[in-house]
Amino acid sequence: VSGSDPLPVAQIPDLRTAPLGHGLRAHWLLDPDIHFLNHGSYGATPRAVLDVQQALRERMERQPVRFMDAELPGLLRGAASEVAEFLGAQGDGLAFVDNATAGVNAVLRSIPFKTGERIVLSRHAYPAVRNAVLHRCRESGAVSVEADVPFPIRGEDEIVSAFAAVIAPGTRLVIADHVSSPLAIVHPVRRLAALCGERGALLLVDGAHAPGMLDLRIEATGADWYVGNCHKWLMAPKGSAFLWAAPHRRAELHPLAISNRWGQGFSAEFDWTGTRDPSAWLAVPAAVAFLRSLGLERYRGRIAALARDAARGLAHAWGVAVPAPEPMFAAMVTVPLPEALAGRGARVLHDALWDRWRIEVPVLDFDHRMWVRISGQIYNELADYEMLGSAVAELAHQSS
Ligand SMILES: Cc1ncc(COP(=O)(O)O)c(C=O)c1O
């Protein structure tokens, strides 16, 4: 075996003509007795991809030293190139990291902020990202400012104007979600990149949900850095994510752990941050192969259509309005819960749905209103969301 041996993808099933929906569940380890409407939080990895990951682990354990020292560098660069090509980028600009949180932190720590410089983010930013910004501000004297992106929202112009209102002179860095969490809105990242360019600010896109869900072309976004998770909509094993950097941003970018290859360049530093199990990263090309086996257009089209159709049905059943024009959502949609549930805590409602109906769905308390964020996935069918619709209606009836 050598570092140039191809990664194993032979076990990936051919699903081009397989009917989508519950019939596909056998390809996942997901409990068949649950309604899993939250692919968004941690993904769910197909058995075939986990099998490839396990094969990689076994290959590593047959001769660990040779694997780590001789094979891994080539395998990692090969995997990075494949994943980058799939996502519209060059492999030398992409490095694997454990998760989006690590990628965002690496960028924040690599910028020598000066006192008073601004870091702009959205008020919808993911809590880990907000905390990382606040921590970096405390260390450096930079100040964080949040763009007041409205929700409900009428169109992407409202996102651009909310950012434009706070990207003042002295803004060093802007962080924008590609698909926001928790509210699932797809952001116009190219327009935001143009805005940052005009104002002399750097742009980090937090694309935690975008790979696999959107037809992502990273280099075309115009971002300085792009962070994405492979363990959500790309179906890769947990602990697989990437950080991409534009060519002129690579030299000063360092991983969170400075290790043996410090000073040897962007990809060398990120590819070795100390001994770890690299099998999740090396299995990402198998996850790409899994999506290709379904048909990429078919996959993306189905997950978005299912989430939007389901959201329309739930909104109708609960007498509420979907909070944004449909094209602003992709495979996740946030829907307000009926007013009658306003006083109930998010945790209580989540647990009631799980305990009584075995429905796993995130319940959110945002802007003094309760919401659910549904995910559409190819192992789901409308019946899963109809179950959510009637369960919530029953809870609302009991509360009124
Ligand atoms: C927008 C956004 N950023 C960052 C993250 C963090 O991802 P991870 O837990 O993989 O670091 C998430 C997770 O859901 C997210 O939605």
Q: Could you give a quick summary of the protein structure above?
A:
40% of the residues lie in helices and 14% in strands. The protein is α/β, with parallel strands linked by helices and 400 residues long.
Count of helix runs: 13
Radius of gyration: 21 Å
Mean pLDDT: 96
Spatial strand sequence of the major β-sheet: 2-8-7-6-5-3-4
Describe the oligomeric state of these chains in a short phrase. Answer: single chain
Helicity range: 40-55%
What small ligands are held by the chains? pyridoxal-5'-phosphate
Distance between the termini: 66 Å
Uncertain stretches: none
Helices and strands: which structural class? alpha/beta
Percentage beta strand: 5-15%
Principal-axis shape equals globular
Number of strands: 12
Order of helices and strands: EHHHEHEHEHEHEEEHHHHEHEEEH
Major sheet description: 7 strands, mixed
